[in-house]
Amino acid sequence: MSVRSLGLSLLSLVSCIKLSAASAQLASNGLSVTLNDVYYFISPFSSGKVLVKPTAFPTVPSVFGFKPVTVVQGAVAEEALPSLFANWSKIDDVFQPAFAQAIFLAGSITCLTKRGTAARDLSTILSIDDTSIPSGPYFLEMATGFLHPVYRLYEDFAGAFTEPLIPTPGGKFQVLSAQIPGSAALTVGVPSRLYFTKTAAKPLAGVRLGVKDIYRLAGMKGSNGNRAWYSIYPASESTGPAVQALIDAGAQVIGLQKTSQFANGESATADWVDYHMPFNPRGDGYQDASSSSSGGGASVASYEWLDIAIGSDTGGSIRNPAAVQGLFGNRPSHGLASLDKVMPLSPTLDTPGFLVRDPYLWDTANAVLYGDNYKSLANTQVKYPNKIRTIYFPSDPTGPESSAADAIMTSFVNALATFVNGTIEPLELDTAWDASTPAEAAGIPLGDFLNTTYATLITKEQIALVRDPFYADYAAIHDGRHPFVNPVPLVRWGYGDTLSEGDYEAAKREKAIFMDWFNSVILPTVDQPGQCSSGFVLYPSIQGDQIPRNRYGGEPGVPFGFNPGRISVFSEAPDSTFPLGQVSSLSAITNHDELFPVGVDIMVAKGCDGLLVKLAQDLVKAGILTAPLTGGTVTGGDILMKRRAEEKGIKKVRYVEYYY
Ligand SMILES: *[C@@H]1O[C@H](CO)[C@@H](O)[C@H](O)[C@H]1NC(C)=O
Ligand SMILES: *[C@@H]1O[C@H](CO)[C@@H](O)[C@H](O)[C@H]1NC(C)=O
Ligand SMILES: *[C@@H]1O[C@H](CO)[C@@H](O)[C@H](O)[C@H]1NC(C)=O
């Protein structure tokens, strides 16, 4: 190489660097800090601006030019500030007194001239004109006057989330860029509850929501529980209408949550190859969290800082995680909300619903999600049906074979009967079917008639809508390769490949025939003022069973057969899980007695969804049920895996507005 040519190439390199430097894009993804040993995140997006000298609040510490401050809107007298802050500390886990060393107070300020007020002694108070900036804690960028919202950071020790997120100003989301210490756990951020005020238009203002990672959110990639899926598809342009309705009502989405792969039923541990099953906090902490909305179930049972999770139920995917984690959970009547931009398992059977501790929040969330298709009965006088029928309930609850769980089930159904002034009658579905078999199924026992219906519908529909396009897209990018898929969806899809279009049409007919029969013979609606359902149908959802996650299961199979959990799947009627209590048994993991949940599923006639939630509220009010708490048991208590030292600083805060 000649000197001349070397000189030339150096020159061109220099000019090249200049060009690329001119187009550099530098953006903040937010900042992670600690204030008095509490982990916080400073949003990169501001809520507004105040006039402030960069030298203000000299005694307040700063990091990277940010200082903790507090905004107080409304006509609050300076003398009342200490009482206000004490109140805030009770209702919000994000605010702490250290934010109140520098206060922006709306209205006229007298404090700086008046000596001796309590607030003056502790703080420097400036005025704020912009009433659009909500009250609460902020980090103030001293150089610019921008107020940035505060998130408190928590460890996702239950492994329930796939990606934590924060909202962006354009109505989208981006991944939360923060990590605090955790045992291979993600970090989740929650905004101060003080920023949000419940109104008629925003009944979910500030409610913290987890979203099953099959619902697409604007700006976020999705996984459906599959890593290859996450890798090949871009972030979604928009949020689907179901979650958008919750957001429009004020709900704060804090993260996407784990699902078993493609929302198929999977067991811990071998089935969950791509992602690790979340940890069920109840009992010994090593019980199967069930599927597929297990991220929602494990998190709502574990975290006081999370209020509710939206999941989906095709064949039990909300009811089962709700049951094993001791929560309320609902499979709604079919067709109450759009599932646009939600990964389908089977559009014929898919339903969106919630996993939740508080039956009042449950009602509000249902009313938002299902809109005009849901009738909240919260403040109305209802006439409960008095016909209670039970499937697989203990027949001899005081006999020698009976268990502690039997006693809980029996005492609950007796209390329910007293409460609704009703009668209890066992329901033998097979016998009832034999006595009134529809003509199209003449001579065929129920179990045979519906044996392959579910497996056929979910596999044929998911193959066409999810697998085939996914395989084609993956192959196009990766030289004809197949993506990795977990054993359960693979086995199920393999079964679907053996079926004909005729089999699929037959399955749709079987479902329709059963639905018409069940909804006319067993559980019809009642069309009278104040009444909706002709009865209740109950079946056990969990009876204190231990299903440890370290147990090796058999080879994955196809979900053939019929069980009570499939009734609502085909009949399209609402079916909700109610936590009843817990029973003690020896855990082989802790070598100690632990408490394991007992629960029941209650069905009413199609379209009577509000009745089940009203029943939950009334039974809690009457002391027949207890709303579950987060913790190692449904009545609270330590979660073994929760590191006590770090959790010490966490205030026990409930979203009080929704409590009764
Ligand atoms: C704090 O709460 C108490 C009890 O609800 C109330 O009486 C008081 O007015 C509140 N203080 C302020 C400043 O809002
Ligand atoms: C309970 O039901 C019975 C029979 O259906 C009826 O005679 C009675 O009046 C009811 N009692 C109440 C308190 O509603
Ligand atoms: C259900 O169908 C599967 C697959 O065809 C079959 O192996 C099984 O024996 C059937 N069970 C009943 C109860 O019919």
Automatic annotation (TrEMBL):
Residues 1-24 form the signal peptide. It comes from Lasiosphaeris hirsuta. It comes from the Eukaryota. PROSITE patterns: PROKAR_LIPOPROTEIN. This is Glutamyl-tRNA amidotransferase. Residues 199-358 form the Amidase domain. Keywords: Signal. Pfam families: Amidase.
